[in-house]
Amino acid sequence: MPSIGFTLNDKAVEVDVAPQTPLLWVVREHLALTGTKYGCGAGMCGACTVHLDGRAVRSCQTQVSDVAGKKVTTIEGLSANGDHPLQKAWVALQVPQCGYCQSGQIMQAAELLAAKKNPTREEIVQHMDGNICRCGTYPRIVRAIELAAKQGA
Amino acid sequence: MATIERPAQNSSADLSRRGFLGGTAGLTFALSLPAGLFVRPHEALAADAAEKAIGAWARIGTDGAITLHIPAAEMGQGAMTGLAMIFAEEMDADWSKVTAEYPPIVPSIFGNPRFGGMMVTYGSGSTRGYWDKIRPQAAAVRRVLMQAAADKWGVPVADVHTEPSVVVHAASGRRLSYGEIAGFAQVPDPMPTVDKSELKKLVDYRILGKDTPRPDIPPKTTGAAKYSIDIQVPNMVYATVLRTPVEGGSPEQVDDKATLAVPGVLKVVPMKESVGIVGESVEAVFAGRDALKVKWSKAPADNYQSDAGLKDFMAKAAKLDEKGVDFAPIVAGDADGAFAKAAKVISAQYSSDYVYHAQMEPMNVIAAINEAGDGAEIWIGSQGASLATGFAANFLKTTPDKIKFHQYFLGGGYGRRSPPDMMFDVLTLAKEMRRPVKLIWTREQDVKAAKMRPMTGHYLQAALDASGAIVGWRHRVVGESVVAYRGGEKALEGNKGLDNIVMEGATHEYEIPNRSVQYVREKRGVGLAAWRGIGAGYNKFVIESFIDELAADRKIDPVEFRLGLLRNHPRATAVIKAVAERSGWGKPVADGHALGFCYCEVVETFVAAVGEISVDRQTGVIRAHKFWIALDPGIVVNPDSIVAQTEGNVIFGLSQTLKEQVSVSGGAVDQNNFYDYPVLRMSEMPEIDVQIIATDNPPKGIGEAALPIVGPCVGNALFKLTGKRLRQMPLTLERVKAGLAAA
Question: Which residue of A103, B99, B564, B596 has the fewest CB atoms within a 10 Å radius of its CB?
Fold first, then answer.
């Protein structure tokens, strides 16, 4: 099996897996970065959201062969010390409950703030609507994104 | 000391260091500790510090770091933080030095008195279950530290007191920190007992009642928090299962040719109610599962259709001659007599469908069995630690102390992670493979093997006398038994046929002198479990909607009507008045909007709520704009946690009110994944306003308290808006459209 190389959180990695393997399992089980979560395997919940060349994608729907030579960022690579404005806002507003969906929520939100400094509430909700939080932290997610935007994410 | 940041590989180091698989399990207390679930890295024990156990619950480092054994699984409800706060308050600890970890499985020490002394986390029962248990334990730790310091100084213990993590002798001005004392203290065995009367008084609290950040939150923003699905152990293999689509079926013929052809699949293992697919990677076993063909045996529920079942349940509910089992907590007076003499009787039928937990982390567990086959190690996020270890011990014909249990964060619990229903499969596979097995269900498997909240049919009647006063109340709840499903027929018989999980919330505080409330059992053979809020999730919808019907019949404002029936219930009255005022009840609302009201006591917490909705009559879409909630949980432990839980409950509750519905065809769940089992999304969330009315009563449940209020608020608001009463939950688009079109 030919190996597939890509950049993961600014480090070059190579994996020997079948090309159709979902990026999710490559990141989580082969490379042991487990912050990216398996939720549905169908692109319906957003728990597995990572950035591919800066765009939020569902890693369960992304074949590893499609990221060859590209740049993948997971929650572990979003900031050096867990101090991205979104992460700080998430802590300040005590957003997570069970926490399982939150890596995906933060990665989805980070894409928005990278593109738009001060999104409206409607834009936030529209951007985040594909990410399920079963515990019901939606109100705090919205407020945390607004707080991070205010603090210049 | 274990920290939450440790990479998965470290567990292998742990594993070999402890030599567990070699059969030297849990030799010492210290070595038997599972990984700390939350740790403040900067307060973790310094490298050169020693640590002393002061009783079973607390260890204190010579550097002052305090580690508490907190027997609550953390699934986002904040119980680990809350119980640690209670313990720290009573031992007068410096909160910034406190770390909590899940204790070893010793139910005789760490069990929850509320649940027969088992180590389980459910039923919003951690705070209220452990409140009276852990405060004396914490006070005993403080007593030992004070005694040790007093002895050192040669002064009477009565002359010393504590400040946060310091013992002080006021007369001489001498001070010793808890860390210093840990360096020399002699710990008595047994620990001293502290009388309840000597516990700290409410006015002296300095930790409880203040917003306290949860230590599990920072790692939940960086990907560092560990759930069992994140764990890898040395030499492990991956597994998934294809389970029988119908409860009780077993694999009769297995065509595993295509599965074994998937690269990385190692073995296909037919089991009792499932077929295991074992392999070298998740992707291999998931692909192998897709390729597997299994013919299942006949099962008792093969012909069951839930839509037909619901009709049966409703018919049975209304057949008063089919006696049910009295629900003693609310039965009073002579209901039959009251109805016989009534000037007027109002009747209604309600129903609720099956629902699925939809916890975000699909079910998973890792297990390893030792060489001798008489011990196992389990890595899991579980609400039922006692149940899982008990199951494993039975399976291996060994004793629970031979089962080493590692607790992780739970990616959602809501009752789904209480039953040990993955243990048989994972242990069978671990035995078969002679290797540790990490078993992960696909989301589809998680849905298909849903352990549902039972579907219910209800019949309600109110008897009014000539003056219009309600003198009789009748409520019959028809549904399958969760207790029998979970604990067997004997468990239900032991409770005289009464399923208190199904009936939870069928109580109410309204002053109606004659009350008959009954559980009427049906059997259909599907998988069941407790679900967030258990019976209150539908019973409160039914009761609070019906109370609204009675108020409408009497032409009395729903809030006034309830206050009238709760004249002697000051805590209920207080939350009702608070939320009515805050929501502007009785004042005009936006065009096309309406407010609905609900009051109930759930998990011993008093909750009143107002919901504001509008409806699109063409599409049937109900839009919830805002919820106001006032609740009295007694003493407030962590206010922000109460607000967070209440927000979550409203959203979870709105999801079940509007959307959630499992249907069963031929005994099998019809749904597959979030595309056909939708849950509430961000665009559908209401604004939520939470008011905490603190009282000095013992602290009660929060994790499920506000969920049941949503359904009745929505239904009552819809009635106000349209004059139409919807009595089937969920209020799906089809039901709303049909209901509004009906004459």
Answer: B564
